[in-house]
Design a protein that fits this description.
- The chain is built from seven helices and eight strands.
- By secondary structure, it is an alpha/beta fold.
- The chain has a single domain, classed as Flavodoxin domain (Rossmann fold), CATH 3.40.50.360.
- Helix 2 links the parallel strand 1 and strand 2.
- The radius of gyration is 18 Å and the shape is globular.
Length: 235
């Protein structure tokens, strides 16, 4: 979660890429049914999907696990790993790579940034998606990229994921040191959020996480059947 807000202008090119892909995936979610009653999405075989996450207090890891579970329910082979952990996974050999990071002091985690830079070439050769976890995303009118965190990071790293999403994290007051607890309580109070420090607060909208996971599933399908999709589009 973010402890401070950075003021910057979002990169419109990155936002446009995500918006175009959102529209493309939405179309495939409504692909006409074939004679058997199954959609073209249902006909796609299992993909190998890699999910890397950078978490501090555990909420980003929990979101990554929810995405993994949803994709596994759709018969995909999912590997999940900690971007800051000792066991690192290369994008090589995976069809789809999903990377997520919490935001603290206005920036995504160093481990997340380092991974993208180290594997940028391989990421460019496959379907990719990114999710960002921050307190800024918990605001009622936060939008798709609150504070422009995703656009700024992707611009700096030279990476254009095909799908992007921002999720609210949580307030694990009981895990904070007393200084962090005081700072977060003060910031949260100004924003109208929960200030009861005797308990932790989860702010993630799990329906949004599930929708993102389903769109990752559809993203792979849309990429595979794009060459024939033009014949199915209404005139």
């Amino acid at each position: 979660m973010d402890r401070a807000n950075d003021s910057h202008v979002a990169n419109p090119a990155t936002v446009a890429v995500c918006d175009r892909e959102r529209a493309r995936v939405a179309w495939f979610a409504g692909v006409p049914r074939v004679a058997s009653g199954a959609t073209l999405a249902d006909m796609w075989i299992m993909s190998k999907i890699l999910i890397g996450y950078a978490s501090h207090y555990g909420q980003t890891r929990k979101i990554a696990a929810r995405i993994a579970a949803t994709l596994e329910d759709r018969d995909h082979d999912v590997t999940m790993f900690d971007l800051a952990g000792p066991r690192q996974e290369s994008p090589e050999g995976f069809d789809v790579v999903v990377l997520g990071s919490r935001v603290e002091t206005g920036r995504h985690a160093a481990a997340f940034r380092s991974y993208v830079l180290a594997h940028r070439g391989k990421l460019a050769q496959r379907s990719t998606a990114m999710f960002s976890v921050s307190m800024a995303a918990s605001h009622p009118h936060a939008g798709n990229d609150p504070e422009g965190y995703i656009a700024k990071t992707c611009h700096e790293l030279g990476w254009s994921p095909m799908r992007c999403a921002s999720f609210a994290g949580g307030l694990p007051y009981r895990k904070y040191g007393w200084i962090t607890r005081l700072v977060m309580k003060t910031k949260t109070k100004r924003a109208g959020g929960p200030t009861d420090t005797s308990r932790d607060h989860e702010l993630t909208n799990w329906d949004e996480v599930d929708t993102f996971a389903r769109e990752i599933d559809a993203l792979r399908v849309s990429e595979i059947i794009t060459p024939v999709s033009t014949f199915l589009r209404p005139a």
